[in-house]
Design a protein that fits this description.
heterodimer; A: 182 residues; alpha+beta; Ubiquitin-like (UB roll); DNA polymerase, domain 1; 2 domains; 5-stranded mixed beta sheet; B: 782 residues; Aldehyde Oxidoreductase, domain 4; 7-stranded mixed beta sheet; 19 helices; binds FE2/S2 (inorganic) cluster
Chain lengths: 182, 782
């Protein structure tokens, strides 16, 4: 559901976005996604996730629930992992956003991606971009995680295919690899 | 040469793409001029549609079209095709593209709005004015089967649409002479598959080419193509259906048709612009098919040693408001029930019943969890009442290795007899017992109790029908570039076919597995097939790939023999090159052979079958193959909160020869996670008005990484004699026995309270109720 999605959810208002606007109203925003500046005139009700997917054409960020539970839409906003389905694009005015596309390329995977491949941490791959972005932010803050901590951070992302076992193993291994490269 | 990749933990070819956000899911398709659809759905479970006024919606900003039923061509106003008929299915009522005079479940499509954006389409859907006259809904399955229940389909005069019985031996006689008979009622409620990607469809019509292209998150692109061509009056070649990357399927992404699969292509053709419809999660909860609601009254007759004389089950199957998929699920439940046990006399009988709820079709397991739940619970009952160890009672009744092929005496969902092809059931059980440490269990259990902890062990056996026909196909091609392509008829939803099929081809042609490009789910690449369901893709399509790859291999040698002026027997294919044995330097690469096999002038030798290094092959198994397994676990119950924690989980599984253990383990892990959901966390709750109360992931709880434990897997490999690769299916093994297992482990943990679980799914709240009720039973609660 695209309309009126944000009501009743906890959204931290950002910067100048607190005023009430009619849904059809438009606003001009500028933000940076994976290092590229985007300036656009958007409906104020457009979610950040839709902005990233439709305006910026970066379809690696997925939508699994649009109500803030599944984590498939997780991106980094000014370095923090956030759910882009729960924010309006206008709330990201001026922000630095990174998405899964900013990690490795198919030819040169990021160590975290490499670990997911080695440990079969994905099947259909739909949840994967969100899980990568969640765990990447986590590993930056906790480079020596316990399995318990890994499972706890993963509990914010739903995966229906893997039973999480390969994901936990991948994150554990990625922590090791990333410490090595850091 | 031999097998280099087959059986290896080969990393997946599809991963780099998916890991870097470069997958292509239906919602990622963007076309110039594309419009967006939104479906207006019935808010009532049962109501007459008195009037529909779309005038306001049509003039809303950005709206291009609003469709109600009468806006569709005449034949699309009729019920959609009957998918799988069966002689016992007397009232085969199927769904509509848009609701007729009456709506029959919450979520049934009533109107379809197409606008410049999804936001605007949803705005306009709200402006469609619909007048309903609510009717009394039939929600409860038992009530729906009563003669005086309100009718979902008035013209039937009943809600019972099918009544089917299968019998083996003489059950009445067996029960009459049995030392013991135990009867019990088992209740299974609804759940949903909840793939992380909801459904989605994009359609594009090119009038000049008279070509319709449909991207559909379906598990069965070829049947969808065939059906669409027929319904839209196009030749099959004029319709191309592509199931691109699909974000999980698990059963319900196979239907013919979901209403949207008609509405989106129709609108695209009529409007001459591409149309996209993406289901949102709340829609998915009501609009994607559900499963699992059955109520069994089952009985077991045993002699004084616990040997089974007969089993009987009589059950109701809730089909929801329509029954497009027929009675596959209850047939699978009936025929899975006997499991690994010798049951000389068996009677299974079910009624399929309409209710005012979302349509039911197979969800991973598709009746198998029900059959196993009933049978394993009955075995536990026998063990308890006769005071025989629960594993011993099972052992006494297991089919023995020398008894294969074992004819169960039933007819399966593919209309072929249920004949277990191979297996070693006692060895499977023994291995699971060893891995879970059953020998030491009594002492461990006592120790936990001394610590005041309620810890129980469970062990559950199953046999799973998989790999059924009718057929699948594949085409393997070596292009003049030397690149190898394999096009298959099945779609893939995460099962790793891009890799497992590539392994098969790579072995046959001695090329690196990464160099084999597998295409799945595109009718433009391969046009004959049925789909990915019933754990059959690896078996049926895998063997078709194998046959095609072997044919290309033979052709390669044949062509090389001509060019190298050698005999085929003297040639060797290695590292993608053909050598003449003992003559260094006389070699040709696959690329060179591919060029030679498709000459521009000259002649083609008779024995070449066709030009080029290419072959298409089909595999049509005579009947299904039957993997088996045992799950065991140790879990702890918190009697204050009703929460459970799994301390150890073991799966021992025999699915014949294994193409890729990495992928197989993943299938099992994921299956167990879904099984745990279906055993303890996930329940679709309907109120008495037929409103679904659980429509978000906050109300419907999927297991997270906190709930799903580490799973230890033990493999046995009894090859299937029914196919050249010796493989059996594995897609559903993880999910099947979990509810039975958890029930037994909870019983064991709460033995002191006399708890007996007879329902699935449970939930912490429900378990707490059961504990409290049981505690009240004996004289005083401790
Ligand atoms: S799509 Fe944002 S959390 Fe599910
Ligand atoms: S890999 Fe399919 S949802 Fe996680």
């Amino acid at each position: 559901m695209k309309r009126g999605r944000a009501e009743g959810r906890t959204i931290k208002p950002r910067r100048n976005s607190e005023r009430v606007a009619s849904p059809a109203e438009r606003a001009q925003i500028t933000l940076t996604i994976n290092g590229t500046r985007h300036t656009a005139d958007v409906e104020v009700r457009k979610t950040l996730a839709d902005f990233i997917r439709e305006e910026a054409g970066l379809t690696g960020t997925h939508l699994g629930c649009e109500h803030g539970v599944c984590g498939a839409c997780t991106i980094h906003l000014d370095g923090q992992a956030v759910r882009s389905c729960l924010m309006f694009a206008v709330q990201a005015q001026g922000a630095e956003i990174t998405t899964v596309e900013s990690l490795g390329t198919p030819e040169r995977l990021h160590p975290l991606q490499e670990a997911f491949r080695d440990h079969h941490g994905l099947q259909c791959g739909f949840c994967t971009p969100g899980i990568l972005m969640s765990t990447l932010a986590f590993l930056r803050e906790s480079p020596h995680p316990s399995d318990e901590q890994i499972r706890e951070v993963l509990s914010g992302n739903l995966c229906r295919c893997t039973g999480y076992q390969g994901i936990v193993a991948a994150v554990r291994d990625a922590a090791r690899r990333m410490r090595g490269t850091a | 040469m031999g097998t280099r990749y087959f059986g290896e933990r080969v990393k997946r070819n599809e991963d780099p793409r998916l890991l870097t956000g470069r997958g292509t899911f239906v919602d990622d398709i963007r076309l110039p001029g594309m419009l967006h659809g939104a479906v207006l759905r019935s808010p009532h479970a049962h109501a007459r549609l008195l009037s529909l006024d779309t005038s306001k919606a049509k003039t809303a900003r950005g709206v291009v079209a609003v469709y109600t039923r009468t806006d569709l061509p005449e034949h699309l106003q009729q019920p959609l095709p009957k998918l799988i008929p069966h002689y016992a299915l007397i009232h085969h009522k199927t769904q509509y593209a848009l609701a007729p005079e009456k709506v029959r479940y919450v979520g049934e499509p009533v109107a379809f709005v197409v606008a410049e954006s999804r936001y605007l389409a949803e705005d306009a859907a709200e402006l469609v004015e619909v007048e309903y006259e609510p009717l009394p809904p039939v929600v409860d399955l038992t009530q729906a089967a009563q003669p005086n229940a309100p009718l979902v389909h008035e013209d039937m005069g009943t809600n019972v649409c099918a009544h089917h019985t299968q019998r083996v031996g003489n059950v009445e006689d067996a029960f009459a002479r049995a030392a013991h008979v135990f009867t019990e009622r088992f209740v299974m409620d609804r759940g949903t598959a909840a793939p992380m990607e909801c459904r989605g469809i994009v359609a594009q019509w090119e009038p000049k080419m008279r070509q319709l292209t449909v991207w559909d998150s379906t598990q069965a692109p070829i049947p969808i193509r065939n059906g669409l061509a027929r319904l839209l009056g196009l030749p099959q070649g004029g319709v191309r259906v592509i199931a691109p990357d699909v974000g999980g399927g698990f059963g319900p992404k196979i239907m013919m048709f979901y209403p949207e699969e008609i509405l989106v292509p129709c609108a695209a053709m009529q409007l001459g612009r591409p149309v996209k419809w993406i289901e949102d999660r709340r829609e998915n909860f009501v609009a994607m098919n559900q499963e699992r609601e059955q109520i069994h009254v089952a009985a077991i007759a045993v002699d004084s040693d616990g040997r089974i004389l007969g089993v009987r089950t009589n059950f109701l199957y809730d089909s929801g408001a329509y029954i497009p998929y027929g009675i596959i699920v209850p047939i699978v439940a009936s025929t899975t029930l006997p499991g690994p046990y010798k049951i000389p006399n068996y009677h299974c009988e079910f009624k399929a019943v309409f209710t005012n709820k979302t349509i039911v079709s197979p969800y991973r397991g598709a009746g198998r969890p029900h059959g196993v739940f009933v049978m394993e619970r009955l075995m536990d009952r026998v063990a308890k009442e006769l005071r025989i160890d629960r594993t011993e009672v099972r052992r006494r009744n297991l089919i023995q290795p020398h008894e294969f092929p074992y004819e169960v005496g039933l007819i399966y969902q593919d209309n072929a007899p249920v004949i277990y092809d191979s297996g070693d059931y006692p060895a499977t059980l023994a291995k699971a017992l060893q891995m879970i440490g059953y020998d030491m269990w009594p002492e461990r259990r006592a120790r936990y109790r001394r610590e005041g902890r309620y810890v129980g062990l469970g062990i559950a056996c199953y046999v799973e029908g998989s790999g059924i026909g009718p057929y699948e196909g594949a085409r393997v091609t070596v292009e003049p570039s030397g690149k190898v392509y394999a096009a298959t008829s099945v779609g893939t939803q995460g099962q790793g076919h891009f890799t497992s099929f590539a392994q098969i081809v790579a072995d046959a042609l001695t090329v690196p597995v990464e160099d084999v490009v597998v295409v799945t789910g595109d009718t433009g690449a391969f046009g004959w097939g049925t789909g990915t369901f019933a754990s059959r893709a690896a078996v049926v399509a895998g063997n078709a790939v194998h046959l095609a790859a072997q044919a290309v291999r033979e052709k390669t040698l044949k062509v090389a023999a001509t060019k190298l002026e050698a005999r085929v027997e003297d040639l060797e294919l290695q590292d993608g090159k053909v050598f003449v044995r003992g003559v260094p330097g006389r070699t040709m690469t696959l690329a060179e052979i591919a060029v030679a096999a498709n000459p521009l002038r000259g002649t083609i030798p008779e024995g070449w079958e066709q030009p080029g290094l290419e072959a298409s092959r089909y595999f049509a198994p005579p009947r299904g193959t039957f993997p088996n397994g045992v799950h065991a676990c140790v879990l702890e119950v918190d009697v204050q909160t009703g929460m459970i924690k799994i301390l150890k989980y073991v799966v021992v599984h025999d699915c014949g020869r294994v193409i890729n253990p990495l992928i197989l383990d993943g299938q099992i892990h994921g299956g167990v996670a879904q099984g745990l959901g279906g055993a303890f966390y996930e329940r679709l709750v309907y109120d008495e008005h037929g409103q679904l109360l659980t429509q978000t992931f906050m109300d419907y709880l999927l297991p997270t990484a906190m709930e799903v434990p580490e799973i230890e897997i033990g493999h046995l490999e009894t090859p299937s004699p029914l196919n050249p690769l010796g493989v059996k299916g594995a897609g559903e093994a993880g999910v099947i026995p979990v509810a039975a297992l958890i029930a037994q482990a909870i019983d064991d943990a709460l033995m002191e309270f006399g708890v007996r679980i007879a329902e699935m799914p449970l939930s912490p709240n429900r378990l707490l109720e059961i504990i409290q009720a049981a505690r009240k039973q004996p004289a005083a609660a401790s």
